[in-house]
Amino acid sequence: MRKNFKKAKQILRQENNKKQIIAINGCMHGKDNQPHKKHIKDPDLSYEKICGQSFWELISNDKELYTKIVQPLDREAKKRNSSFKKIYIQKVNEMTGDIIKLFCARNLLDWNKIIEFISKTK
Q1: Are 53 and 81 in contact (CB under 8 A)?
Q2: Confidence (pTM)
Q3: What's the CA gap between 8 and 18, in Å, rounded?
Q4: b vs e for 58-67, b when ≥16 Cβ sit within 10 Å of the residue's Cβ?
Q5: Among 10, 55, 75, 80, which has the highest number of CB atoms less than 10 A from its own CB?
Q6: d(Cα 64, Cα 38) in Å, to the nearest integer?
Q7: Pairwise CA distance, residues 79 & 88, whole Å
Q8: Count of alpha carbons within 13 Å of 68, Cβ hemisphere only?
Q9: For the packed helices 111-119 and 70-103, what is the interaxial angle rounded to 10 degrees?
């Protein structure tokens, strides 16, 4: 991330941008009591980490957006959660079937087969 910030600053300077360039790492939630991430040897690797309410206010000019956005995000997450659960259960079942097929004998895990699968030279 720091390298990308540095590259972006260099590109902006090449375009004759005379304004001060500040790289910002925006975080949707949380807090950071030390937002200034200074790099002493190379100032172009420095950036600001803006979190939670400060981040949402920065991008929207609305001090309360961080509370307004929670309910729509929650609704969207709940909508997607049921389809995620279905896919997750399918994958767990598929992997369980593979383990049974490959590594079980008489309904018991065959640890030698597992160790061979993981470690044996081909």
Answers
A1: no
A2: 0.56
A3: 14
A4: eeeeeeebbe
A5: 55
A6: 29
A7: 15
A8: 7
A9: 110
The Cα–Cα gap between 4 and 60 comes to 24
Q: Is the Cα dihedral 103, 118, 122, 91 positive or negative? A: positive
Instruction: Tell me the per-residue pLDDT of 5-18, one tens digit each, with 9 for 90 and over.
Output: 999 998 888 887 67
Alpha carbon separation from 7 to 1, 2, 38, 45, 76 (Å, rounded): 10, 9, 16, 9, 35
Q: What is the three-class DSSP state of 15?
A: coil
The total number of residues shown for the chain amounts to: 122
Closest CA to 54 of 23, 28, 22: 28
| Positive/negative CA dihedral, 71, 56, 28, 11 | positive
52 phi-psi bin (left φ>0, alpha ψ -120 to 50, beta other): left
Structure tokens at 70: 């929670």
34-77 pLDDT, tens per residue? 999 999 899 999 999 999 999 999 999 999 999 998 888 888 88
